[in-house]
Amino acid sequence: MLPIAFAPNYAHPLPAGHRFPMLKYELLPEQLLHEGTATSADFFVPTPPPVADVLLVHAADYYERLRLGQLTRLEERTTGFPWSAELFEREITILGGTIEAARLALQHGVAFNIAGGTHHAFRARGEGFCLLNDQAAAAMWLLTHVPAVRKVLIVDLDVHQGNGTAAIFQHEPRVFTFSMHGARNYPARKEASDLDLPLPDGIDDAHYLKLLGETLPRLLDEVQPDFVFYLAGVDVLATDKLGHLGLTRAGCRQRDELVLSLCHRHRLPVVVCMGGGYSERILDIVEAHANTFRVAAALY
């Protein structure tokens, strides 16, 4: 089984400038079903978690103001989204999906959230189209509720640094944050992850994979995690409008193979969230994301 969180409101209507990248939330599950990588039984519809689970990583005041639509105009502009009740429901559902995926990964070895990877959300603020930090919340949910999980590794391979995640876990030794991202990309001011690997513009498949292949096995040995979260953004593609890196679709798939095969070999449960992807052609986005699922389906 390949448990996959997907909810209809993942693609909820947004302003015109945001609609194109949101299409992937509708097209990706259709593609996976069409080609047989997943079946309808693999999909589950997530629900919002108890508020207490959100407050494991978010300030109560921020959560309440977000829920009630009381963010300041500056806060709203920083997130990049105009507030609406539908938007809040979408964000809290995404967070619930990643927590539920963590629960299922303990049973099946791997689980996915077709959305998720909202790594720019801080404890008391949102930014960069991220309002609540789903992987951070799910990591703390595991550490709080699952005694067998004592150490978590977050592998963030989105092209943008996971600044919110790094800040949330700055003083939490049970979570190791690893971010491999474009050095000159958003955010302009980076936070300090436990390990940051800033990449030059235009880096190609060979150099990217060599660096990751030298780093991740060593991290698994040193950190000794009990659980892994993988943010598999496809904005590392050369075709991406915002990424500025030079990976091909084949190289992006090799990246997924490297991460997931290591987790499989070490018998580490892993939750995969899809993160960013902003190529001009929706086909490039959907195919690169679909490759992540295809790799997992071949392994698990």
Automatic annotation (TrEMBL):
GO terms for molecular function: histone deacetylase activity; hydrolase activity. InterPro entries: HDAC_classIV (IPR044150), HDACs (IPR000286), His_deacetylse_dom (IPR023801), His_deacetylse_dom_sf (IPR037138), Ureohydrolase_dom_sf (IPR023696). Pfam families: Hist_deacetyl (PF00850). The keyword Hydrolase applies. Keywords: Hydrolase. It comes from the Bacteria. GO terms for biological process: epigenetic regulation of gene expression. Residues 24-284 form the Histone deacetylase domain. Belongs to the histone deacetylase family. This is Deacetylase.
